[in-house]
Design a protein that fits this description.
This protein is about 25% helix and about 30% strand. It is α+β, with helices and mostly antiparallel strands. The chain has three domains: about 140 residues, Probable tRNA modification gtpase trme, domain 1 (Gyrase A, domain 2, 2-Layer Sandwich), CATH 3.30.1360; about 100 residues, 2-Layer Sandwich (Alpha-Beta Plaits); about 80 residues, Aminomethyltransferase beta-barrel domains (Elongation Factor Tu (Ef-tu), domain 3), CATH 2.40.30.110. The strands form four sheets. It has a six-stranded mixed β-sheet with strand order 11-12-13-10-4-14. Strand 17 and strand 18 form a beta hairpin. Helix 3 crosses helix 8. The longest helix has 11 residues. About 45% of the residues are buried.
Length: about 375
């Protein structure tokens, strides 16, 4: 019973119940997994029109003060001072071994004001970590209580504009505070154009009352969110990224400026330099199973001789790709696209090829 009592519930849970959502546990929250349309239709609707996601399980953290940029540059492999006004940057909290404790998006909202978006399962640890690091800096760390919505898909911009939300001039990986207590970024987790909006519950309900009657807009659950991000080659912390995974092995060094790799003093910097000096032993890759059977997270990857050479970290069916899709880690020597491996699926050897990521092209609005 104790587990049930500690499950967190979304502020807008009544709207999801009214929409016919099926709920399930995720990162300590009761989350809508699917709606009556079902995962396949929800997925395709997002690719073709507008998917509306309640991501209030994720955490917005406001970091501000004279040394806010210096604090974030210590906590992350990031040159926060170099960010332009409204620029967002994908980054990490690394541990001293250069493992990824969480992946984040940091947006500069002003000279001394930044917004950090953290993952649900890591939110409490992230807040505690930032507050601990902040003891050495003149900066404050303030977790915000906000409803957080993702509006994603090729018609997202026009749907929001018609709902009265000003989106002009906002391009991919930029964020602003368009109204009091609002945070809006042009970003997302689907590979499509889209927006993420953090706002008070009252404002969220008013916005949704304008969006929901729009025939282009459909509620989308966690199941389709997973298939959309997997097709787009985007990582899920806790599966594709863990505290034992470093950014080099994960293929995410593009997120760390070259000068910081050489001389940065962020947490985990020395360990990351050691990984780069010797080269990562394994690499994250896309994986395409032969046939129609998916390879799921946890499956071992074998070479032709039956030796374990890697593992699947995420897997399922890709509705837009039209075939099963997966990601995982393989020995660096086997990471070239086209390499034939085998996934151990309940004792059966499923042929699976290393594939280039993403499985479906990104369609972000670059301005």
């Amino acid at each position: 019973m104790s587990g049930e009592s500690t499950t967190k519930r979304l502020p807008l849970e009544d709207l999801h119940i009214a929409a016919g959502a099926k709920f399930g546990p995720f990162a300590g929250w009761s989350m809508p997994l699917t709606y009556p349309a079902g995962v396949m239709k929800e997925h395709q609707h997002t690719r073709e029109h507008v998917g509306q996601f309640d991501i209030s399980h994720m955490k917005l953290i406001l970091v501000r003060g004279p040394q806010a940029a210096a604090l974030l540059s210590r906590a992350c492999p990031l040159d926060a001072q170099a960010l332009e006004q409204s620029q967002s940057k994908y980054t990490f909290f690394l541990n001293e071994a250069a493992g990824i404790d969480d992946d984040l998006i940091v947006t500069r909202l002003g000279p001394q004001r930044f917004m950090v978006v953290a993952n649900a399962g890591n939110a409490a640890a992230d807040i505690a970590h930032l507050q601990e690091v902040a003891k050495g800096f003149d900066a404050t760390v303030e977790p915000l209580e906000r409803v957080f919505l993702a509006i994603q898909g090729p018609e997202a911009a026009s749907a929001l504009a018609e709902a009265g939300v000003e989106i002009d001039g906002l391009s991919f990986m930029h964020g602003v505070e368009p109204r009091t207590d609002w945070f809006m970024s042009r970003s997302g987790y689907t590979g499509e154009d889209g927006f993420e909006i953090g706002l008070p519950e009252k404002d969220a309900r008013e916005l949704l009352a304008r969006l929901l009657p729009d025939g282009r807009v459909m509620w989308i659950g966690l199941a389709a969110r997973d298939s959309l991000r997997l097709e787009a080659g985007l990582c899920l912390h806790g599966q594709d990224l863990t505290p034992e995974t470093d950014p080099a092995s994960a293929g995410l060094m593009w997120a760390i400026p070259k000068e910081l790799r050489a001389s940065g003093s962020f947490i985990g910097a020395n360990a990351l330099r050691a990984v780069l000096d010797r080269g990562p032993a394994e690499k994250r890759v896309g994986l395409k199973p032969e046939g129609r059977q998916p390879a799921r997270a946890g499956a071992s990857l074998l070479d032709a001789d039956g030796n374990v050479v890697g593992r699947v970290t995420s897997g399922g069916f890709g509705p837009s790709a039209g075939h099963p899709v997966a990601m995982g880690y393989v020995s660096a020597a086997l990471a070239k696209p086209g390499t034939r491996l085998f996934a151990d699926v309940r004792g059966t050897k499923l042929p699976i090829d290393v594939a280039a990521l993403p499985f479906t092209p990104h369609r972000y609005h670059k301005g």
